[in-house]
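Protein modeling request. Please complete all fields; requests missing the sequence field cannot be processed.
Requester role: graduate student
Desired output: 3D structure, token encoding
Chains: 1
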Amino acid sequence: MPSSGQIVTRKGSPVSFECKANGNPTPTVQWSKKDGLLPSGLQVETGYLLSINEVQRQDGGIYQCTASNGIGQPVTGEVKLHVLYPPEVSVLRSWVNSGEGLEAKLDCVVHADPPAEVTWYQDSFQLQPTDRRIMARNGQTYSLTLRNVQLSDFGNYSCLVVNSIGKDKRYIELSGKPGPAKIISPQHSNPHEYELKWVVQSVFPIVEVRILYRRVMVNTSYHHPRQWHDLLVKPSQNYNSATSERTQKYRLINLQADSAYECLIQTKNQHGYGELSDLHQWFTSPKGRFVIQNSGYTRKHSAFSLIFVVILSLIIC
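Delivered output (317 residues):
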């Protein structure tokens, strides 16, 4: 039940399925969901009644009740649950980097039933398709492609998605500035120096990097940061054209041994400074202990061991 074999309901509503079965001896009834788990997270539930308190979008599908009593073959019945829900929108990237003369693609992933209408905006102005502005759909992904990007194309975009039940909106920024740097250095360093390494997305070369770092006094009762060191540097960069990512590094020196440090990085290209990175923390080793990076793992040596390795290498040479 229902005898029609189908239930149509809205997201958030309660739903119950009932499966009646006769036999001698009395059959056992089990519920399952075709091609998935039940809303409870179980593979199978036993009982004539299957109830869902608040239906979610993912609960839609075909539910099966199977009756068996050990005599003959089990018997299976099916009921289809069709869930109507307002649009649910996500973006593949909330920040997209591009440059003049290049191409930029903005994507919104849309789930909606009944089907929804998608409208693109730049700031508060609705956009229409042109030869340079292409709007397309591939499955659940709606795309806005900008060809031959111009300075006027940079800014905030949004995709507004509406159906008869509700609406949703998500924002995407198109910028020529660098993205926030992602620091990929380890969390431990040698006593007095640290190789800071980061990756930043930028179509244009990075022309300047601002590094803010400071020592942090930490114990069980307080956390007291020192003054920031503010550096402007121009390290070299390796560019990956497939991802538009640039990898850079810079060695910090004159650090205090056995201490905690934290830093921020901000990069600049011809369009200006991007946003600050997330705060990154690391710890310097105690005096006399060195951290050697080798094939992805870290080994600690005493000063004596390190000197011995150097001397041995000289003897072999």
